[in-house]
Amino acid sequence: xxxxxxxxxxxxxxxxxxxxxxxxxxxxxxxxxxxxxxxxxxxxxxxxxxxxxxxxxxxxxxxxxxxxxxxxxxxxxxxxxxxxxxxxxxxxxxxxxxxxxxxxxxxxxxxxxxxxxxxxxxxxxxxxxxxxxxxxxxx
Length: 139
Prior knowledge:
Elements: E1 3-9, E2 12-17, E3 22-26, H1 40-62, E4 66-78, E5 86-98, H2 102-116, H3 118-124, E6 128-137
Parallel strand pairs: 5-6
Antiparallel strand pairs: 1-2, 2-3, 4-5
């Protein structure tokens, strides 16, 4: 996997993925940015959220669960001193569907966290990661 990050101006950068997609990253005004894009550490957290969401949807669909939507909410706490790594990350899944098995939802989250989501597993080496979920039945 390859990626490229190119400095634009001030504290703005564009990241380009090997698959041909681009994303703008920028710093806050207090650090010379203009707030034109996500912060790099936000991008890291979003990457973890995307990775685990991908897994959970895939596992539930393979398990023939009638999944209608999934929202993954992440909340992270960073260290106060440099390097300001993530210390704790909490992931809350909001799973909506019809006749969803609570056991299968819990297992999908467990499999993502412990086996499939590379981003979660890497970040888990330095941060405490916790998960919970709610299931909303759609009539």
